[in-house]
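Please review the protein record below. Let me know how this chain folds according to its tokens.
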Amino acid sequence: MTDEFVPDGDDELSYEDFEDAWTGEDDDLIDLDALEDEIEPGASPAKKDKATERLFKKIDSLDSALPPPKSRTSARSTSRRTAPLIPPVVVDQAAEETPPAADLEPEPAPELPPAPAAEIEPEPAPEPEPAPELPPAPAAEIEPEPAPEPEPAPELPLAPAAEIEPEPEPQPEPELPLAPAAEIEPASAQEVEVVQDAGEAEPSGPPPLPATVYLALLSLPPELITQVRDLRSTGKITDMPQPGARLIAGFRAADLESVKTAVAAWVRTHLPIQIETTGVWAEVVGAQQYIAAWSLELTKEIRTAQRTLSKTLAPLVVPLDDTPAEFPVRVSIGDQIAAKRYPLVIGQMQRDFEPVVWHAAELILVQHEPETASGEWQLTATFD
């Protein structure tokens, strides 16, 4: 093909001007903006596909999820530029409504008739040849071997029989003459009574303790004796011994004379002794036992005197069952005060208390018979 158009004949040539030929004078250009204005405002824009809409929604939601920008101090840092968003792609509605190729179900392939199976005849298996019949072998006659005869045991010579000597017969013992029987005299009636008394005698042991209770009291000055009696009158106390200072608890004794001798020796060694009242002693034992007393200053002399008197009387007396391990030195007002009277006694003791100092130079021994109806304390002995 040449660059110039060469007609095949004269009929195809025309020397007239074309109606639509461009003369250069027609310079009307197409205004694209005007074309956009001619579009009706109510016309619906092209729809976006669902993937594009989800993409733009995700981009809009990233603004709040992104962390704030960090300040950069490096000299090489440049001004940050915001990348423009990709303009939406306009997709033809007809193309959008057409499902993608992946969603189209493939057309099923045409079913071809199955090819006829070739009929293959199985080859007949060769028949096995029959085994030749052999004559049965004659059974072998097995003769049993004869058992070996046992060899006879050699004859051993017999041992000569031991000669057993006969035991000698026991000889009878000679008979001894019997001694004449001793004449036994019958026991007298007095001897029989002594034997009976010895069999009925009780086992030996310490004699039972008497029920008498003893107290050892140091003497008080007259003014302190008056206070003790007034307090006992207030509390209606009638079961107490004479006023005095107790060094040891009450006791029982089987040998009163030995006790008196030991107490007399102690008085000669430790009296007179200085004593001073220090305050009110109030004690509640159990639920109904109320005790009131004057407490004493426990000097070294008083502790020594109390310890020595306890050791001196230990082998001679038996303390009462309710005796405490450490007996307090005090001037007793009452050991069994009534609950209603107890506050009156303690209040009067606190009101009238004044320290009293005196030198005790006398010890009295009093006793009490629990079985008697009166229950009063009796003076037993005085030691000075």
Notes: The CA atoms of residues 308 and 314 lie 10 Å apart. Residues 72-104 have pLDDT under 50 and may be disordered. The helical segments are 32-37, 50-65, 93-97, 189-200, 222-234, 256-270, 300-313, 342-352. The two ends are 176 Å apart (CA to CA).
